[in-house]
Amino acid sequence: MIMNSRKLARQLIVSSRTLLRTIRDPQECRQLSQAIIPAADIPPSADILRPIHTPYKCLLGPGPTNISARVVGAGAQPMVGHMQPEFYQIMEEITAGMKYAFQTENEMTVALSASGHGAMEASLMNVLEPGEVVVIGVNGMWAGRMVDIATRTGADVRTINKEPNEVFQLSEIEEALKTHKPALLFLTHGESSGGVCQPLEGVGDLCREHDCLLLVDTVASLGGAPFLMDKWNIDIAYSGSQKCLSAPPGTAPISFGDRAREKMNNKKTPCVSFYFDMKLLSNFWGVPGFGDRNYHYTAALGNLYALRESLMILAEKGLENSWTLHRTRVQELRSGLRDLGLTLFVEDEADWLPTVTTIVIPEGIEWKELTTYIMKKYHIEVAGGMGPTFGKIWRIGLMGENCTKENLNFVLGAMKDALRHVNFKGA
Predict the structure, then answer these.
(1) How far apart are CA 198 and CA 185, in angstroms?
(2) Is the pLDDT of residue 21 over 70?
(3) Taking 50 as the threshold, does the pLDDT of residue 1 lie above it?
(4) By CB distance 3.0 to 4.6 Å, which of 19, 134, 313, 322 could disulfide with 155?
(5) Quick one: average pLDDT of 29-43?
(6) What is the percentage of the chain residues whose pLDDT exceeds 90?
(7) What single string gives the DSSP state of each residue in 285-338?
(8) How many Å apart are CA 343 and CA 361, to the nearest integer?
């Protein structure tokens, strides 16, 4: 046995020396590599070999917004393992910031590595059984999108409908709850496709009277318009990182209250999505009651660093100050637009969304000619309508990082020039 081992050792030494001699000869080394590693038949494109460059644009549409140097810098912090204590600490700080933004004490408050659409799906998949009735208040693009998502989850979808520049009254909501007896009611707080902000006070109380969960979309409003999740008895709320929070797109804050968690726990069918399973996500985020943390998926660390910084900026500013700033700027913007001879799409000031202003496109004006002119000359993004408002309105967003006096004056000056360019007689 010992002799065989010595013989094997000598053979290995001889083989190693032979390999070393081969490596010293570059030609033979290439031949050896080609014998082991297959050729890549498809070469890289010339485009991917060029350094990336994105021009600066002032993003004054409905989102995303420009991002501050602080948030950009935070997102570029060194990577750490997503199961390491340093990142767990960052997650806890993000949770605290999201609770402040939502104005909630909900322990099940996490950030999904997804866009707001991911949160839309997660909010339904975790609480609804197939066939349960859902009432969706449709007055724009995002409620319409939720109809699609709820239908795909197997819900029995009923709708109440308003025009894109209108909000739902409590009496209309109460009638829908009595008629349809839903397990869940969905409303959009900030409907950016039409520019309205849905009043929510009293809606949560009605839902509790009718044993119904209240789910609210705050993607276009969180941080820019008053939102009091606990005080208003809202059971589930979600948002996005790229609007008033002015962080990169790709993270979605979401919060579930006690009633939603009870519905989740009593659900007979499992969440159909592994990725959006709130029980697994709650374990990963360290929510009390979900055991020791386990791996769920690799979180988008850079985006979460950036989200943490944006939440810090919001906390430094103060929610009340942020709400006041957005309300002040939108009043100034709308006053300036009226002075240009334009008509606002949402007439009642009480219904204005403080983050996105919508303007009726004057008769005879091609909407895209104006937005293209402003982008080409001023590098400002002003958007057209979306969904039911496509081709009918322009949309200007002053939110988060972009909610400044400088941007207000900049966009009003650009609009005045562009209206002359398209021969609008009221300018």
Answers:
(1) 14
(2) no
(3) no
(4) 134
(5) 78
(6) 90
(7) TT-TTS-S----S---HHHHHHHHHHHHHHHHH-HHHHHHHHHHHHHHHHHHHH
(8) 8
